[in-house]
Amino acid sequence: MKRFKGTGVAIVTPFKNDLSIDFAALGRVIKHIIDGGVNYIVALGTTGESVTIAKEEKKAIISYIVEAVDGRIPVVAGIGGNNTQEIINSIKHASFEGVDGILSVAPYYNKPSQRGLFQHFKAIANCSPVPVIIYNVPGRTACNISADTCLELAHECENIIAVKEASGDMTQIMKIIKGKPENFSVISGDDMLTIPIIAAGGSGVISVLGNAFPSECSEIVSNALKGNFKTAREIQFRFIEMTELLFVEGNPAGVKAMLNLMNLCNNTLRLPLVPVSRQVFTRIQKAVEEARK
Known about the structure:
By secondary structure, the chain is of the alpha/beta class. The chain has one domain (2-229): Aldolase class I (TIM Barrel, Alpha-Beta Barrel), CATH 3.20.20.70. It is 46% helix and 13% strand. It is built from 13 helices and eight strands. An eight-stranded parallel beta barrel has the order 1-2-3-4-5-6-7-8, surrounded by seven helices. The radius of gyration is 18 Å and the shape is globular. It starts with 5 loop residues before the first strand and ends with a helix.
């Protein structure tokens, strides 16, 4: 659990202009993130455009990240979906050398019941050779993992060690923090709610903004975890507009625009995602210039 305390970054997957994986750019982003003092990397999540990446590409991406990180910080691999058996098959055939955990999103589209969600994650936990972080993001999945279901999983499945909470429901999040076992973490899945969740007893964030501004995100989380909320707030307030711009035309379009402005990767996404509009790009450019002064 302690390996996933602090600032995690949901890393982007850079593409070349022909939409193949840009491993050189991925290496630059990894170096930028680690140099910024983050605590762990999460690959192949929403920000990593996992749903448009083929199985063999996913294996190559994880292998590259593990090699580039070289044990300096933990690596979490996104392995999720809405077909439980397919996820289990993926886990059984995956290499976990250098991988410290799995992030698994709530099933989307199917709209399972809470019992279905419990059985789904229990099955994943039972077959995973590494710890599992469940990911609740109902805005994307149309499926909320309730506080009761999350706590049932936390208490009954030893291999489920955390939840990435992106419901935006602070009442639900606080219920989980109140009722969770000691060895279970609640991680913010929303950059804007990092400080409130830590103040309530959360353990950190899996950040999108951290791709572009890892040092500042790390400072926010580090100060908040130490109870230095005044300092954490001051840094967070500088990035309010920046954080909003990350999502105004979808993630990871916003953060890829930022990384492009920093000469770290192309501003390229795979359909159905597209780059931000010229108007939003101009706003992002201005915000990045202000933040870097």
